[in-house]
Amino acid sequence: MAVSATFSRLNLLPRPSLPYPLSTFRVLKFRPMWAPLTSFSAHFSTPKSSPIPNTQIPRAPDDDFIVLGIETSCDDTAAAVVRSSGEILSQVVSSQADLLARYGGVAPKMAEEAHSQVIDQVVQEALDKANVSETDVSAVAVTIGPGLSLCLRVGVRKARKTAGRFNLPIIGVHHMEAHALVARLMEKKLQFPFMALLISGGHNLLILAQDLGQYIQLGTTIDDAIGEAYDKTAKWLGLDLRRSGGPAIEELAREGDAKSIKFSIPMKQHKDCNFSYAGLKTQVRLAIESRNINAEIPISCASDQDRSSRADIAASFQRVAVLHLEERCERAIEWALNIEPSIKHLVVSGGVASNQYVRARLDQVVKKNSLQLVCPPPSLCTDNGVMVAWTGIEHFRVGRFDPPPPADEPEDFVYDLRPRWPLGEEFAEGRSEARSLRKARIHPSLTSIIQASLQQQR
Ligand code: KG4
Ligand code: ZN
Fold this sequence. Notes:
- This protein is α/β, with parallel strands linked by helices.
- It is built from 13 helices and twelve strands.
- The protein has helices spanning about 25, 95-105, 110-130, 150-165, 175-185, 225-235, 245-255, 280-290, 305-340, 355-370, 380, 385-395, 445-455, and strands at about 5-10, 65-70, 75-85, 90-95, 140-145, 170-175, 195-200, 205-210, 215-220, 345-350, 370-375, 425.
- The strands form two sheets. It has a six-stranded mixed beta sheet with strand order 1-4-3-2-5-6, with helices on both faces. Strands 11-10-7-8-9-12 form a six-stranded mixed beta sheet.
- Strand 8 (about 205-210) and strand 9 (about 215-220) form a beta hairpin.
- Helix 8 runs antiparallel to helix 9.
- The longest helix has about 35 residues, at about 305-340.
- Mean pLDDT is about 85; it is low at about 1-60.
- The structure holds 5'-O-[(R)-(carboxyoxy)(hydroxy)phosphoryl]adenosine and zinc ion (ZN).
- Zinc ion binds next to helix 5.
């Protein structure tokens, strides 16, 4: 599979000021990321029998360092090289768009194969475009969850091989934290605490970011995420899925009448900040069936009348899908300001945040509440390696990382992957009776791990 899109030396982004005093870097000692916590002792199961001799201890974070980030949690194979100043030295993304278009969704086994085919090439290209080699890199950051186990494994294996061979520390990254924190790479004014709405194919999260690794979950989806609803609507409308369903719906919606079909806004009766898109999906499917739209006929071959009918559905769907976001954000802002009155920003990130209509509508909500919207550029909203490298940089600076894995790690080594891994602790007052979330096999949240680790250090 060819590497479909590459971005090299995106020096257009402003260099942020560092949120930590540089002097703190030098005093940091090398220590495993979660060393104090024996129950989930390390991001990766570093064998206790192989302590690193002092001579092999990697450099502690310095003022200026470089991190390689690797992302394979879903259907994009991505890598990037980022400097601690925030300068993006390279960004490479290989998307599985052809597979998506062919199968109408992500099939884990096929996605794993596609990742395996391109991972070496993607990482090498990221290093080449950055004009660095592994020896210039201070650490490797990799997404360890949430996501598809089979896919996460490909990135983690590559990261550990690279880190093992070059004796580099490794930082296990939470995919959704990375979506939120990448906003701090491009917006230097963005300090904690801030709010974030993270909207992607698999997640719909409203969080209050109190500090690095410390999040309160104000709302989540009780069934599908908004990106899934965009993707299914696009598939049922016979749209070209090669750029994924979201952009196809956004484009077609511009031609339609957004008020022509009266879809109802989900969860109006639940006065909380949770989301639900399964019901809206059903409403859309029924509307498509009742208009005899045939998804087998691609939109490019549809008659004018058929096209206009599909555009009306796309526009009406998008309006209501985003109204649901707006309504939840309004309430979340109220809750968040009660907890942290100093909040000034709402970050909107994740694939769906690249949508211009979504941005414009949320900008109005935010302005009404005297806050500021921070949206990363589209290439940093959809899955990418930059967000992983940057999140690695943020954690590395404060000494949260794991020791280099052994260079000769066996192929059958059991990696610590976290397919179901909440970001924050649920806001107790915001719990909804409508929640039907499966709790089985959920990993303790990133926030609870960090808090336990901080307590043990005190
Ligand atoms: O964050 P992301 O790249 O991957 C996940 O972590 O899921 O998000 C992918 C989702 C897909 O559902 C895709 O259709 C959606 O983001 N998306 C969009 C747009 N671009 C990507 N949805 C609406 N409008 C867009 N322009
Ligand atoms: Zn994502």
